[in-house]
Structure formats: C-alpha cells, structure tokens
Amino acid sequence: MNLGRSHLEHVLSKQPNTNLAKNVILFVGDGMGLATVTAARIFKGQQQGMEGAEKGSLVWETFPDVGLVKTYNVDKQVPDSAGTGTAIFTGVKTNMGVVGVDARVPKGKCDATQVKKASLDSIMQWAQASGKLTGFVTTTRVTHATPSSTYARSPHREWECNAKIPIGATNCVKDIARQLIEDEPGRNLRVIFGGGLSPMGVANYTGPDEEVCKRTDGRNLADEWVRDKESAGVRATFVRNNGELARVTPGEHDAVMGLFATNHMEYDAERDQGPEGSPSLLNMTTTAMRLLQKGPNGFLLMVEGGLIDQAHHQNYARLALMETVGMEATVQAVLEMTSREDTLVIVTADHSHTMTMNGYPARGNDILGMAHNSTKKQLFETLTYANGPGHYDHLNNATDRSSVYLDPSQMANRSDIHYRHFAPIGIKSETHGGEDIAVYAIGPFSHLFNGVHEQNYIAHAISCAGQFGPNADMCKSTKSAASGFGSKAHPIAIMLIFTFVRITLL
Questions:
Q1: What pTM was estimated for this model as a whole?
Q2: So which residues are the catalytic ones?
Q3: Are 42 and 363 in contact (CB under 8 A)?
Q4: d(CA 347, CA 40)
Q5: Do residues 315 and 390 make contact, with C-beta atoms less than 8 angstroms apart?
Q6: How many percent of the chain have pLDDT more than 90?
Q7: What positions does the entry give for Mg(2+) binding (predicted)?
C-alpha cells in the first residue's frame, strides 16, 4: 500500500523537462527484450543477496518516462539488427538485412543508382552538422549490424570487408569497414570502440566462425584512419588493449579508435582484465565520455551492449543476464558523469529474443533454476527458449531412455556460464523475438518517449530534443510555449486565455 502510494506521489510530482538536450547518450541492449530485463532485475538482486529481488529495479527502470516500441522490419514480422538499427538511427524503417538504406533496396541486391537514391542520413550525421562531437561504443565488431547502422549504407549487413562483397557488386558499394573510415559520418566520428580487428585489416580472425570478414586487399584501415585524422590536425590514436586505453587522455587526444578483438569482444565474465586484455563496456564508455565532453556544442554517443544478443543466440541465459547487468552498471556511471539538466539518456533494445520466464516458481526462487520442485511433475527451467542449440544439449541419448530429454536439475554444468537452457526446437542459432520492446528515458524532453511508438520514432524524438537534424525546430517551439507567448504551435491556448480575459472583463 505504502509503496504504491509513494510511487503515485512521485508520478504526480513530475514536470516535463523542456531544456535543450545538449548531450544525447543512446544505449542499445541488443536483444534486450522485456523478459531479459525482468530476469536481469531478479538476477541482479539475487546476486546481491537481496530478499524479494522481484521488487528490485535496474537503474533505467527508475527513469521517469517509459514507452513501448514496435520492432518489425518492412518485410519481416520478426526483425534483425540491421533493419532495427537503421530504424533507430535514421528514422526510417527498412528491410531485414540492409543497413542505412530504405526499403527500395532488397537484401543483397546491389544497384549503385538505387542504393544512392535509397541512402539515409543517421543521427550521427545530423549531430555532426550541428557541431556536436559523435562516437559509438560496442562489444560487437564495430562493423556489425547495430553500430554500422549509425554510419554505413549497404544492401547487405555482412559486407563488412572487401572479401564479402560479391564480384558483381564490387563497383556498387564500398565495404562497411571502408565506409567507416572514408565516408561521412563514419570518418568524422571521434570515438570508435569495439571489436573487429579482422574486417578492419589489422589482424586476421582465426576461429570457427566463418562469418568473420578477413580483408584480402592488404589495407590496414585503422592506420589509415589515424593518418586521415592527423592530416586534418586532429590528434588521433589507435589502441588495442586495457593498458593502451588507460593512457588515453582528453588533454592529449581528440579522436580514438579502439579495437580490442579480431571478432566480437569477449563476454565480460571471460575477458582478461590485465593490461594486455580487453576493456569492459563501462571502461570504454567512460573513456568515450571524457573525450566527447570536450565539445563546446555537446555530443552524441551510442553505446551497444551487443553480447546480450550473442549470448541469447546460444541459449546462454546466465551470460545474457550478466551482460545486461554489466550494461546497467555502465548506465549508472554515465548518469553520475552527466546532468539531467542538459543530457538526455535513453535506454532501449533493438529487438527481443525467444527466452521466456514461465511456470509458477515461488517468490525468491533462483531465476536460473527450476520452475518448481515437485516430484510429481516434469521438471523444467523458469527461463526457457522457443528454439536454439540448447535443444541438443538436453536430448537424452541413452539407449534405455525413459524420457526424450534429460532432467535439467541433474545436469552437471548448470552453474557454468556456457550452460545452455532448454529449447524444444533445435537449430544452430536461436532466433529473435518479434514482440514490442521498451524504451526508457531521462533528461530533457524524455517525456517524448512515453506511449507506444514505431521504432523509427526514436531518431525523430532525439532530433527534436537535441535540436539537430530534421526535427530541430519542433522542440524549440515547445520550449518557447512553455515560457510564455509567441509560439505558433499553441494558438488554441492563446485563444482560450484571450476568451477568459474577455469574460472576466464583462
């Protein structure tokens, strides 16, 4: 009763913040659907020994404004990160698998004239045009679907390096890595942190994943990026590990590229934390913040918790929750480094996954445990997936088996971070989910995110709040209306006041 009343009092006391969002920080938890947020909230509380962890909150769940976002692509009910990233960062929904182009371009079809006509500008380009510093941080490859949606235009998300572009398309479009260092807005980014040494031509990936691009043109794009910056009088450096990142200072560096893995970066639970190891999302983000805060006109920073998605694809529920909690620590650090008066912080996802929280587990039950402990019912986990490789791990291959699946409570590796939760349909990589995801916001014009929105609305709301890009003037008129007369946006309000005054004088 008291908790509900205090929350009501808090909601009633809210006043819209209509200041200019000088700085905008957009967090994207890749694959962080509502089931992931709920489970991560409970997981965090249980890890901290909190009684009644279900009542806890992730930091963004305390933000004053929350909305829901429709994630479908133009051609797919269930989306991918290229289509959703393009919607978030350009304000235009598009097809699955394409980056930075509208729906006139089908995935994998490259016509140079059509690609040029369909090319879209992103929030990074809008911000740069208004004099803001820009950058992004990701735990995936810097050329992967979500980060590349901030700077690239390509008919195929996998054309990350020259070796992936089909022979017939080589004269149609540059590979995504080249676009990052050669074209706007990529070449103007001041911070680029993530994995992806291989598609950038710095060091080749060696491993089982055939999807990782390896350049065949002999180019080292990181070196070229540094030279390009220095020729323009920008103090730039390239870093590859914790030790080198720690030596980056705003006083000595204006632009920094950090590539910390040949492929995606390692899960936070597995990374080497020493000088030769790779940084956490928190370390990369706070370094990026210090560099971008030098800009007199403010900055725009995109931060992606990309390994939430990678963990879900493997049915690694524990790792997905750990990565989500790690992103939460990063959001908290950003809040401590900024002011609510001039900085808009947004937390959202690009899509969800098929993980569900099911059964009727008792309050306080281990979120990674069994949904019940009855010996009279078939045991199953609270967190299960609709599909994925976990199916094969749970198959009972015994010749005298009494059940198709193993008893999950008896599986020896349940506490291992690579333990795969059960999925009834076996496929190599678990799929995305298609339900709405959430968007949380705090700071100037955060109230714009209340309600249910198409995913491409996010870019338009950012443009308005930050007063850059195509909707720059829309929030200016709101501000002037809030402070007095003179706004054409509120003629009805002016007419009502005039009528009231006239009646009073009669």
A1: 0.93
A2: 81
A3: no
A4: 15
A5: yes
A6: 86
A7: 30, 144, 146, 304
